[in-house]
Design goal:
heterodimer; A: alpha/beta; Amidase signature (AS) enzymes; 11-stranded mixed sheet; B: mainly alpha; Histone, subunit A; two-stranded antiparallel sheet; 3 helices; about 5% strand; flat
């Protein structure tokens, strides 16, 4: 069975026309995982039995003549940060290797209810902290386009799984770029939603004023269909407003005539690799050719975004991870503790990996007495100015187009000993996160050495429909989305 | 600003993290580099600027105070690595 050209719509048609059964489709993906996952390390848990039980149920329904809905039978991979009922959820952290949650995250529950079939859980940087999945206790995920390079992160396993046809759709989280950057490095579309558009309940919190849930797919239309099924108010996540959830797929008109595109000059300066610059500029020209108007804009606070993020995020992360004390969940320390506080020290000293300890330390420091005003409060004020940049820009333009990552996929180990160099990889994805606006990464070319490059399309809050429309129109007018890695 | 090894020890104490000696040396160097970078924020004039706490403008989200049976208490308790007694988790004594 050829999985490389499947989309949600084609799965739906195929099941309906009985070209293939749900068991055949699911088995084809599971077999592909068996063949390729050793090389890629995209999945950390494969749920073969559970997936086939679901597929058999669906086949029964099809035989009985039930009307299928759009997402039924669509194979899904889930970042191992999302709670999945009775399926191991490790956050790729040493202390949670055996954690089995008793309930599903809201997003997972909604997609399961819509009929999607869960193939397994994908690799990530521990607790979603990283840009390469090198900080996973299960080892790094390899890039399907070059096995010596990273797939990006933190949702690297999900991006690689979709790029290599080990899933049709995959869930991820994006706090400072963790969907868009791996999407760009693996040549698949990836959507970061508006803060609060999708419930985060049941997904382990990283930085609570930044965290969002989103997905990877083979096409922009697939992202639109999945978003429609996940988005909306959830009483278990107070940050989800009761805002209308449009039929996103119906907004994909393929038309960008008259659309005003802003091109921020700060995103095209020093540090941007020439190949990336050329590809993204060519993509913007393509949109202009299709009828959009292009204007240069300025987002002067861009250069401060990383500094804001690496104060605010660790502060919130260290606070969130304070609940990981080895009492309600987690592993026992290897050495017997003397008393309760000794239990905390020993348990946490062993349960967290290097990058998490580093970020907990940064966060604890910036929130400690005497430093709060100088760091945390200062950062949140500069964050306000980043938001003001975007508010001004969106008075003049409808969307903003820019690169996603300053460079294509880097070599495994290249940045491993220099945390600051790794942090700088997020320079172009953090500003949208700071402002809570939606942003879509779409494939837009390749470097001279054959590595994927992505373009970022940002829009105002709750305008996912608009950026999906632009991404879909671009995808259909170009061939970049049809390229597949040779494995 | 640079972060001394003593400071690293103090922060680790606050964070309830047991660190090895080599981890303390490493974090002292790495955190110093990160905080030197973060000092970039001092360039920005933030006089009179309100700090951001929530980006979509929601305020005071409330709900009815109702008890909902969310999931099986036994299943929740079984997530703990510690012994369970009378539906409670038994931890080491405080002293």
């Amino acid at each position: 069975m050829d999985l490389s050209n499947l989309t949600i719509a084609r799965v739906h048609q195929g099941l309906k026309a009985k070209d293939f059964s749900s068991v055949e489709l699911t088995t084809a993906y599971l077999d592909r995982i068996d063949q390729r996952n050793d090389a890629l390390n995209a999945y950390v848990t494969v749920t073969r039995e559970e997936a086939l039980v679901q597929a058999r149920e669906l086949d029964k329904k099809i035989v009985q003549g039930f009307e299928l809905v759009a997402l039924e039978g669509v194979p899904l991979a889930i970042k191992d940060l999302f709670n999945t009922k009775e399926i191991k959820t490790t956050c790729c952290s040493p202390g949670l290797k055996n954690f089995v949650p008793p309930y599903d995250a809201t997003s997972v529950a909604r997609l399961k209810k819509a009929g999607m079939i869960v193939l397994g859980k994908t690799n990530l940087d521990e607790f979603a902290c990283g840009a390469s999945t090198e900080h996973s206790c299960f080892g790094v995920t390899k890039n399907p386009w070059d096995l010596e390079r990273v797939a990006g992160g933190s949702s690297g396993g999900s991006a690689a799984a979709v790029a290599a046809d080990l899933a049709l759709v995959a869930l991820g989280t994006d706090t400072g770029g963790s969907i868009r950057q791996p999407a760009s490095l693996c040549s698949v579309p990836g959507l970061k939603v508006t803060y609060g558009r999708v419930s985060r309940f049941g997904v382990t919190a990283m930085a609570s004023s930044w965290d969002t849930i989103g997905s990877f797919g083979k096409t922009v239309e697939d992202l639109a269909l999945v978003l429609g099924a996940m988005a909306g108010h959830d009483p278990y996540d107070a940050t989800t407003p009761d805002a209308e959830v449009p039929d996103y797929a119906s907004l994909l008109t393929g038309d960008v005539k008259g659309l005003r595109i802003g091109v921020p000059k700060e995103y095209f300066g020093d540090g941007l690799e020439e190949d990336v610059k050329e590809s993204v500029m060519a993509a913007i020209k393509q949109l202009e050719f299709m009828g959009a108007t292009i204007q240069e804009i300025s987002l002067p606070m861009t250069k401060y975004a990383i500094a804001v993020y690496y104060v605010s995020m660790p502060a919130e992360l260290s606070t969130n991870l304070a609940r990981f004390d080895g009492v309600r969940f987690g592993s026992l320390p290897s050495e017997a503790p003397e008393d309760l506080i000794d239990y905390y020290f020993k348990q946490r000293g062993e349960a967290f990996g290097d990058e998490i300890k580093r970020r907990i330390m940064i966060g604890t420091h910036v929130l400690s007495a005497g430093y709060f005003d100088a760091y945390y409060l200062k950062a949140q004020k500069v964050r306000t100015k980043i938001i003001q940049d975007f508010n001004c820009a969106f008075k003049e333009v409808d969307v903003i187009c820019a690169p996603v990552s300053p460079f294509p996929a880097f070599k495994i180990g290249e940045k491993a000993n220099d945390p600051l160099a790794m942090y700088l990889a997020d320079a172009m994805t953090i500003p949208a996160s700071a402002a809570g606006i939606p942003s879509l990464s779409v494939p837009c070319g390749f470097s001279k050495t054959g590595l994927p490059i992505g373009m970022q399309i940002m829009g105002p809050q709750f305008e996912e429909g608009r950026i999906l429309r632009v991404g879909d129109a671009f995808e259909k007018a170009t061939e970049w989305g049809n390229q597949r890695p040779r494995l | 600003m640079s972060i001394s090894k003593d400071q690293v020890q103090h922060i680790a104490q606050l964070a309830r993290l047991k660190l090895t000696d080599s981890e303390m040396d490493k974090f002292s160097t790495q955190l110093s580099a990160i905080f030197e970078y973060v000092d970039l924020l001092n360039e920005v004039d933030t006089e009179g600027v309100e700090p951001t706490s929530q980006v979509t403008g929601l305020e005071n989200v409330t709900r009815e105070d109702e008890v909902i049976q969310f999931c099986d208490p036994v299943a929740l308790l079984s997530c703990s690595p510690l012994p369970i007694e009378k539906n409670q988790i038994k931890v080491k004594s405080v002293f």
